[in-house]
Design brief:
Elements (H helix, E strand, L loop, with lengths): L1 H39 L7 H8 L4 E5 L6 E8 L3 E9 L13 E2 L2 E2 L1 E4 L2 E7 L18 E8 L8 E9 L10 H18 L17 E2 L4 E2 L18 E4 L7 E7 L5 E8 L2 H11 L24 E7 L2 E9 L13 H21 L9
Antiparallel strand pairs: 1-2, 2-3, 3-9, 4-5, 5-10, 6-7, 7-8, 8-9, 11-12, 12-13, 13-14, 14-16, 15-16
Protein name: Aromatic ring-opening dioxygenase LigA
């Protein structure tokens, strides 16, 4: 009887050891498989530790992302945790690659990443008008996009690193926001080294502002960011703006007392300006749009856009003023010379402050 009991105990112990061994081996294999997938993703440009720190410890699935001339992309999915879509672009390939530079999401202005980085941080607000417009859910993506100006022996003049992250966490929590930027900053550091870019990198991102909802108005005499210094006028009394913070793309929206947008001003630097000029020059049907041969232009009563430019270390910067019209509203001509003079004053104030903040020359006068 005793011998039978001992045999039963031995069998149980053997099974337990076998199960533990299987789990150990299986766990090690899964870990090795996940680590290998992360190390090979996006041509080896991802920092595995940073990705794990953001997306969590679950099983990893990597899928190829968009690719093309100068473009590397991949998607990382971590089971029961989050997703990141990463794109690294040689900006010289803009127009030849199936990717474009990130400027923001419909309904919200992207804010500067800051902390020494040239970049934008944005998210799409809840399209159903939730009380918390930036709550993160399964379908929402938060975007961090960085520009690296190359100084080393790379053939690239600059690189763009864009990461769309889904975590299911609310952006309302200031402590959560920097997590959304961590994969982008770590990938930027690895891309700069791997591509011999020699870019000047920023510091760890410890804080980020919320993206600015398009309905966040303030009186025009109070802005201290992208709309600062712009005078008010009859019918133009409010503004929607972001901080400047070295962003490669800046926006200021001016509106009336009924919260209707009247003018949208934009500043673009480096590859952002190059992309905008290329896009405008492809609009062959319009004669009064920015082009490389016309450094500045004030629109006439029938015109569409006013613009000016400035010379910067990273190339020519472009500043534009677009009259804005509500949905279904017909395009109106300025009521007279006073309106055109106001537009010129607005563009001048916007461009001068933006250019100064980026260390550029004074904007050109037409």
């Amino acid at each position: 009887m005793r011998r039978i009991v001992l045999r039963a105990v031995a069998a149980v112990v053997a099974v337990a050891v076998a199960v533990a061994g299987y789990l150990l081996v299986h766990g090690d294999f899964q870990r090795w498989k996940d680590d290998s997938a992360l190390d090979g993703a996006c041509d080896g440009l991802l920092d595995r530790t940073a990705v794990r720190g953001v997306l969590g410890p679950g099983a990893v699935e990597v899928e190829p992302g968009p690719s093309g001339p100068g473009l590397v992309g991949c998607e990382v999915h971590v089971q029961d945790s989050g997703t990141a879509e990463i794109r690294v672009l040689d900006t010289a390939q803009i127009g030849r690659s199936p990717d474009s530079l990130y400027t923001g999401s419909p309904g919200a202005l992207a804010v500067p990443v800051g902390h020494g980085w040239t970049g934008l941080f944005g998210a799409a607000p809840d399209r159903f008008g939730a009380q918390d417009p930036f709550r993160a859910d399964e379908d929402e993506k938060v975007t961090t996009s960085l520009v690296l100006e190359c100084t080393g022996g790379s053939s690239a003049k600059s690189l763009s690193v864009t990461v769309e992250t889904t975590l299911g966490r609310s952006l309302d929590d200031p402590a959560v926001r920097p997590r959304f930027a961590r994969i982008a900053t770590s990938t930027a550091a690895r891309a700069s080294k791997a591509r011999h870019c020699g870019a000047r990198l920023g510091k760890p991102v410890g804080s980020l502002d919320l993206p600015v909802h398009e309905d966040e108005y303030e009186p025009l005499d109070t802005p201290d960011g992208t709309c600062s210094g712009i005078p008010a006028a009859r019918g133009v009394t409010i503004a929607t703006e972001t901080a400047r913070g070295g962003a490669p793309h800046e926006t200021c929206a001016l509106g009336d007392a009924d919260h209707g947008t009247r003018y949208v001003l934009a500043a673009d630097y480096g590859p952002y300006a190059q992309e905008q000029l290329r896009d405008y020059e492809e609009e062959k049907r319009y004669a009064d749009v920015p082009d490389s041969d016309t450094p500045a232009h004030h629109r006439d009563p029938d015109g569409r856009i006013s613009w000016t430019t400035a010379e910067c270390a990273g190339g020519r910067a472009l500043f534009t003023l677009h009259p804005s019209y509500g949905k279904g509203e017909r395009r109106k001509r300025p009521s007279g010379e006073a309106d055109l003079a106001y537009e010129r004053a607005v563009l001048k104030a916007f461009a001068e402050r933006s250019a100064k903040g980026h260390g550029c020359s004074a904007p050109v006068s037409p």
